[in-house]
Amino acid sequence: MSGRMLVALTWRSAVQARYVLLGSLCLLGGFQLIIVGQASAIEETRSFSRIAELMPGFLQRGLGNQALLLATFKGMVAFGYFHPIVAVLVSVVAIYVATEPAHEVEGRLVDLTLARAVPRHVVVTRSLLLASGVLTAAALLMAAGTWMGLRLFASPEFEAPPARTAGLLLVHLVSVALCFGGLGLALAAGARRWSTAFISAGLAAVVLYLVDFLAIGWPFMRAISWISPYHYYPALPILAGEPLAWQNVGVLLAASAALYAIAYWRFSRRDL
Amino acid sequence: MMADPAILVDGLTKYYGAVVGVEDLSFTVERGEVYGFLGANGAGKTTTIRLLVDLIRPVRGRASILGIDCQRDSLRARRLIGYLPGELPVYADLTAAGYLRHLARLDDRPVSPAYLAELLRRFDVSEVDLRRRLRDQSHGMKQKIGIIQALMGRAPVLILDEPTAGLDPLMVRAFRDTLGALRKAGDTTVFLSSHVLAEVEATCDRVGLIRDGRMVATGTIGDLRRSATRRVIVDFREPVNGSCPMPAGVTLSTRSARQWALDVQGPLGPVIELLSSLPVEDIQVAAFKLEDYVARYYAED
Known about the structure:
The complex is a heterodimer.
Chain A: H1 2-16, H2 18-44, H3 48-54, H4 57-63, H5 73-79, H6 84-98, H7 100-106, H8 109-114, H9 120-153, H10 163-188, H11 194-214, H12 219-224, H13 235-239, H14 246-269
Helix pairs in contact in A: 1-9, 2-5, 2-6, 2-9, 6-9, 6-10, 6-11, 9-10, 9-14, 10-11, 10-14
Chain B: E1 7-16, E2 19-29, E3 34-38, H1 45-52, E4 60-65, E5 68-69, H2 74-78, E6 81-84, H3 96-106, H4 113-122, H5 127-131, H6 139-151, E7 157-161, H7 169-185, E8 189-193, H8 197-203, E9 206-211, E10 214-220, H9 221-227, E11 229-236, E12 250-255, E13 259-265, H10 269-275, E14 280-285, H11 290-300
Parallel strand pairs in B: 3-8, 3-9, 6-7, 7-8
Antiparallel strand pairs in B: 1-2, 1-4, 4-5, 9-10, 11-13, 11-14, 12-13
Helix pairs in contact in B: 3-6
């Protein structure tokens, strides 16, 4: 019985958010197309060496030789999966979907749902399911954008990132976003206003991205960067083909699970 | 063994920080009854309803629906409820038909298409109305859809918060007829809050009056009539001077030589006995009005 209710609620939420979600997903897929197009244009003119020369010193010092990977066709194509805009946008999409319970409480829609024999946990599970579905769709569309870009713009002799590398980057990206989705849901499970939960979680995503980015050249930030989910997304080592440290994904999934558990707990106890 | 009442509220207490929602509230609604729940704005009507539906949790006390605890066994209790909130929330993108379809999917009880069609006919909701987005519809139409969604699952207990708010007189009559049919069938209990006292007087078997989160009066309209203070105006053929002792429950409110105004609480027999020895020309007894009765409590707020 709960299954049927879960499907009904998930479908309703997906339909309601369709324009925002479709727009964001198209943007993410389109971004990959554009970045492959740009990388192809640079590679055709053999200009990557000049980009390497222009790379800021603090990046080279902070990231070491792996920074130079960004100044290759392979690196630039893969950059589409950890570009700041992409990393933050994917997280914000997850937060947008996950904070729906607060929107339903604010608009009293939850009254009609939960006055029926719908268990409270179904509302939270719906948001988790939808966030996971949207992130999977985002990853698939980004991969499709890259594939299409390579077919449309790149010469076959250009060295594209291997499928495994692209897959690992996307797994990490989705894991980070799931973590922020969990944060959004945990906040929404206790909030009376959607904007409170969405803005708080969204700001957290931006600030924590900055913490991780600034950790490249700032020892203080390096000391606290472990709090940022982006810290567990080692894009350049993955790109360099270093042996994969699965504990990064483990940390992200464990943090997500903890945040989702908090969301379930808070929502089950709260006044609506 | 006695069957559990349809609704039992026992010592229910809810605070919003320092503000009292309801405090030590107790009452019962018997099976098959239509119970009117009255009170001024902020008196605690909606808080009580939301506690019954388990949307909010009490600090202490308990509530049950047909013997099932609303908090401890919330899911089973909610299976028995059809609920109309005070303000119907709408999905911006849904038509009225889509809205009812979505809520029917969430209903535990299957919605009979024949019964739904009957409700739509009774509340005069046309095919065109069903195809329009709910957010673009009038308040009255939203209210009709709200009533229909509460009734369509044929729940044994209906909890309706201000059901006739925004309805035109014809639809108020349709609602009244629907309640009448439910009452006749005898298998549905209705708990409704309302500000329309004439409506409550016409439709409810019993009423409860809540003030500052506490029940201050409850009973049938007849009970309230008997407990209410009534104004009796007595005109005399000739001046009546001097004093005479008033029976218990009778107060001489104003007096002139040829007219007395008495406030009477309880039966009129002692007043008639008192007046039998006096030169009475005419007696006017003010008819009981629930509105006046409730207004007296509201005024004390």
